[in-house]
Amino acid sequence: MSKAKVLITADEIAEHLGISRTIATELAAVLPVFTIKGSKKHTYVTGTNYLDFVNSRIAKLTNGDFDSIKSLVQSNKKDELKTLPIYKKASNKCLTIAFNNLKGGVSKTTTVANLGAILAALNQKVLLVDMDMQNQLSTYFDTDVEFEVKEDIDLLSDEEIDTILDMISKEKSAGKSILTIMQDYSENKREVDFALVKKVTQTINFGLEGKTLDILPSEWKLGRGLETARSIPNVSILLKKILKQAKEEYDFILIDTSPSNMLSIELSFFASDYISLVSTPHKKSLQSLKHIIDEINYFQGDAIEWGLDIKIDSLILSRTSADKSSNSKKAWKKFHKRLKTKTDLNVYSIPENELFGAAETECKPLISYPKKRTAALDTISELGDYAIDLITREG
Q1: What mean pLDDT comes out for the span 341-352?
Q2: Which one of 62, 65, 66, 239 has the largest count of C-beta atoms within 10 Å of its C-beta?
């Protein structure tokens, strides 16, 4: 697959589609052209991979009568774009995917947040589940507290220091998180209160006009709560039970797992259809993949008893330009070569880019980051390919 090109003007979009600028602008509302509403004007951005996805969907949905947006326009059928279920998943089944590496600091949470936002931007109903007691995913989109980030704490004002201390002492999701649901389950006859699940779930407006996603947050006490939960009968399928009703309401559920709490990992894997491994090019990060595969094989025995199959679906290679040392480059090249020849995994790369940190500071995924739009969308190009693959996947 050739690398997608980012398009940032109506003229570029029109040229790629082979239609006029006027029609391209008219169709922007129904095409995967990601819109950020500004105070004075809207800004648009898309990629050739997203537009090519629409062309392929048109060909399939019309049984080959039309093969592209251009052919619809030429046949005066462009209004059919408004009625064709272009963004409907090929499978009616909600897909649940857990993301893991036993080593922290591999951009796992960043990957989940950005992939979830891309899927939501493509009109998918997305639920993010934070199963990490560090609750970084829960705070990724948190816009309730705003302060300028400075490298030196001496430069922080008294008000900013008080704000940070308040965040620490009054955690936003405390008492209304995934832990709340687990505790209620334990205390109330081992039944999931789905009304409570809905109450705890938060809706996130992540910066694209008309697009949202939902999140089931975590909190710091989750680690201690999971230790207590070990006494619950059949605890391995507890998260699966909690998400049972959600699977009827969402297209995708993405679970951000803990890198170290094995019960959190076990619950997440048992609740998932697929596992996506996330790794950086660092040697230790790559080595940790062997250990998580060993854990998956260990869990598989118990999973079979529940009629479950824990399947590794993909490997996401993050910060692929992060380490320039000769040893890491050798390990990286060897590992990448073996991946291509030894496995059937889907492999996606995310280059290192300081924009991830800048966007997170503003509580934004890169798809809705209002600055350096071309570089931002280019950085998550292969995550976009992954999203398209998931949407078009049969079964």
Answers
A1: 78
A2: 239
Is the pLDDT higher at 28 or at 87? 87
Q: Sorting pLDDT into bands at 50, 70 and 90, what band is 318?
A: confident
> Using CB atoms within 10 A of its CB, is residue 248 exposed (0-12), middle (13-18) or buried (19+)?
exposed
CA dihedral 138, 142, 144, 149 (to 10 degrees): 120
pLDDT band at 144 (very low <50, low <70, confident <90, very high): very low
CA distance 145 to 154: 20
For the chain, the domains span 6-82, 95-392
Q: Longest C-alpha distance within the chain, in Å?
A: 66
Q: Report pTM.
A: 0.87
List Cβ neighbours of 290 (8 Å cut-off, separation of 6 or more): none
Give the type of residue at 273. Answer: D
Q: What does the alpha-carbon distance between residue 308 and residue 272 come to, in Å, rounded to a whole number?
A: 9
3-class secondary-structure state, position 252: strand
The neighbour count for residue 82, using CB atoms within 10 Å, is 10
Residue 341: pLDDT over 80? no
Distance in angstroms (rounded) separating the CA atoms of residues 53 and 387: 11
Quick check: 240 and 62 in contact, CB under 8 A? Answer: no
Determine contact, residues 179/219, Cβ cutoff 8 Å.
yes
When computed from its CA atoms, the radius of gyration of the chain, rounded to whole angstroms, is 22
Q: Retrieve residue 391's tokens.
A: 């949407």
> Among residues of the chain, what percentage have pLDDT more than 90?
41
Q: Is the separation of the CB atoms in 278 and 101 below 8 Å? A: yes
Mean pLDDT (the chain) is 84
CA–CA distance, 325 with 215 (Å, rounded to integer): 38
Contacts of 133 (CB under 8 A, 6+ apart): 218, 219, 220, 221, 222, 223, 226, 258, 261, 264
What CATH number does the domain located at 95-392 have? 3.40.50.300
Task: Report helix, strand or coil for 140.
Answer: helix
